[in-house]
């Protein structure tokens, strides 16, 4: 693949609550190409989460054009979820694991939309956890794992679907600096595996790992280098 994975043209997102409107993303034009590790930085409230959710097809843009691999994304929920499930995966600040399922069951759950035999799903979940250094945690519940291990389980759940683009919103917000570096290193290794990563973060420790930094202020992209 040579063209951009995502192309946004004059993208806007406005939250409307009664008569109150917040323009959280304003006039954003950008592309995310293959094998890029892109950071989105900026102060709290600058629109990072809204931008990620819009580019990740979780939110419907208020205005503007969005293309994924050259295809215009129509503004209906079903198209957006199909494209999202086929090509993207997400991780958040908290791993959002299901508390009563083991690590491997949590990861396997991400494959429930794929037409795969159960034993194939189980094997892929195990292999993914082992690849992220969690072979000793396959049958553990989230509460039996450290915060770093839980977050790596969340990453395994995202990666097991073999996404082209991984979107990560403050994935190290709950982690100490050692576990954060492990996560950044894991994300960087995804680029070597042919994926792209788009990560919103407050952690400037991530900058050396990235290939590009997008800076946001008041809903706008004010620097992209
Ligand atoms: P960041 O991730 O940089 O902290 P956000 O995208 O969360 O920024 O927020 C951007 C702006 O949109 C802020 O002014 C925030 O208060 C507002 N906002 C975010 N989510 C909502 C929502 N669900 N409803 C209304 N306003 C929101």
Low-confidence stretches: none
Structural class: alpha/beta
SSE string, helices as H and strands as E:
EEEHEEHEHHHEHEEE
Main β-sheet: number of strands, strand sense, barrel status?
Answer: 6 strands, mixed
Which of globular, elongated, flat, extended, rod-shaped describes the shape? globular
Report, as a whole number of angstroms, the end-to-end distance: 22 Å
Strand residue percentage: 25-35%
User: Roughly how many Å is the radius of gyration?
Assistant: 17 Å
Q: Given the structure, what is the number of helices?
A: 6
Spatial sequence of strands, sheet with the most strands: 6-7-8-3-9-10
Helical content class: 25-40%
Average pLDDT for all residues: 94
* Each distinct ligand: adenosine-5'-diphosphate
Using DSSP, what is the number of strands? 10
Oligomer: single chain
Give a written overview of the molecule.
The chain starts with 5 loop residues before the first strand and ends with a strand. The strands form two sheets. It has a six-stranded mixed sheet with strand order 6-7-8-3-9-10, sandwiched between helices. Strand 9 and strand 10 form a beta hairpin. Helix content is 31%, strand content 28%. The chain has helices at residues 48-55, 77-87, 103-109, 118-131, 147-159, 177-192; strands at 6-17, 20-32, 37-41, 63-68, 71-72, 88-91, 165-169, 196-200, 212-217, 220-224. It is α/β, with parallel strands linked by helices and 225 residues long. Adenosine-5'-diphosphate (ADP) binds at residues 15, 17, 22, 24, 42, 44-50.
């Amino acid at each position: 693949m040579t063209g951009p994975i995502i192309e946004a043209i004059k993208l806007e997102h406005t939250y409307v609550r009664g008569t109150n409107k917040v323009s959280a993303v304003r006039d954003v034009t950008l592309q995310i190409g293959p094998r890029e590790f892109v950071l989105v930085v900026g102060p709290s409230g600058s629109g990072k989460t809204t931008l990620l959710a819009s580019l990740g097809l979780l939110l419907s843009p208020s205005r503007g054009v969005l293309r994924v691999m050259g295809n215009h994304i129509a503004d209906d929920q079903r198209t957006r979820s199909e494209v999202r499930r086929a090509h993207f995966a997400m991780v958040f600040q908290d791993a959002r694991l299901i508390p009563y399922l083991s690590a491997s069951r949590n990861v396997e759950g991400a494959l429930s939309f794929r037409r795969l035999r159960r034993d194939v799903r189980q094997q892929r979940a195990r292999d993914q956890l082992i690849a992220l250094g969690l072979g000793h945690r396959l049958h553990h519940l989230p509460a039996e794992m450290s915060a770093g291990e839980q977050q790596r389980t969340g990453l395994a759940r995202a990666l097991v679907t073999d996404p082209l683009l991984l979107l990560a919103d403050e994935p190290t917000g709950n982690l100490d600096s050692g576990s954060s570096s492990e996560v950044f290193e894991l994300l960087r290794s995804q680029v070597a595996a042919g994926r792209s990563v788009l990560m919103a973060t407050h952690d400037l420790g991530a900058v050396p790992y990235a290939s590009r930094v997008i800076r946001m202020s008041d809903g706008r992209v004010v620097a992209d280098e």
